[in-house]
Specification:
Blueprint (H helix, E strand, L loop, with lengths): L4 H14 L2 E5 L5 H9 L4 E4 L2 H10 L5 E4 L8 H4 L5 E5 L2 H13 L4 E7 L12 H10 L6 E8 L7 H18 L7 E7 L6 H6 L4 E4 L1 H4 L10
Parallel strand pairs: 1-2, 1-8, 2-3, 3-4, 4-5, 5-6, 6-7
The protein binds pyridoxal-5'-phosphate.
Pyridoxal-5'-phosphate binds next to strand 8.
Length: 226
């Protein structure tokens, strides 16, 4: 288990040219892997599980920017509210309200992305465009959150045309939402693309990719409970 340096440097170069941010997805990976990438200068890491993120954040340097990219349950927001850098997968108004509440307790404004449902699979979470508009409108009552943009996951399929179409839909929703910009809705980030589909995502206008296995190798979930 260790970091693929070659992939890291070639990704950095490829993404740098396009001004696309790289989130290194370290879920299920050991502290030593994160430190290895940290030593190369990387600071943005993504995690999917609250308990795992809390454990890692306690042990690792404080200047790491932690991105929560998984499905976040409302009752767990309180554990990460004090330190999380960006929550990518905000997929309900209920969750947004809870993040706002915990942000107020911590006396900070928590930055988030709203997740848009673009994939065909039912299991993927997120708003549709109408729900997005409602969420943006509700922000005026939620003073301890700021929305920096949108996030989405394409279908898990070999059909690249389908993936492309889904990313294109997300980009269009992003563009449509620009007219609702305010001091709390500042859409500059479009988080889309993972190891398998990031090239398509960039072609379709991604500004932030979330990459795990290309950097850290395949994940092993065999001893994972949640
Ligand atoms: C795990 C995960 C990733 C990274 O996946 P890879 O295919 O390993 O790059 C990106 N985004 C989300 C939301 C994830 O859960």
């Amino acid at each position: 288990m260790s970091v693929n340096h070659k992939n890291y440097y070639s990704l950095k170069e490829e993404l740098g040219k396009m001004n696309v941010a790289l989130i290194a997805v370290s879920k299920t990976k050991p502290i030593s892997d994160i430190l290895e990438l940290y030593e190369l200068g990387h600071r943005d890491f993504g995690e999917n599980y609250v308990q795992e993120l809390v454990n890692k954040a306690e042990q690792l340097p404080k200047d790491i920017r932690w991105h929560f990219i998984g499905h976040l349950q409302s009752n767990k927001v309180k554990y990460i509210a004090a330190f999380v850098h960006l929550i990518h997968g905000v997929d309900s108004l209920k969750l947004l309200k809870e993040i706002n509440k915990q942000g107020a307790k911590e006396n900070r404004i928590i930055e988030c992305l709203l997740q848009i449902h673009i994939a065909e699979e039912e299991s993927k979470f997120g708003f549709d465009e109408a729900e997005l508009n409602v969420a943006i409108t509700s922000l005026k009552d939620l003073r301890n959150v700021q929305i920096n943009g949108l996030m989405g996951m394409a279908s898990f399929t070999e059909d690249t045309h389908k993936v492309k179409t889904e990313f294109r839909t997300l980009k269009q929703i992003f563009i449509n939402s620009l007219k609702q910009s305010s001091d709390q809705y500042k859409p500059t980030v479009l988080s889309m693309g993972m190891s398998g589909d990031y090239k398509i995502a960039i072609e379709e206008g991604s500004t932030m990719v979330r990459i795990g296995s290309l950097l850290f190798g395949e994940r092993d979930y065999s001893n994972k409970t949640s």
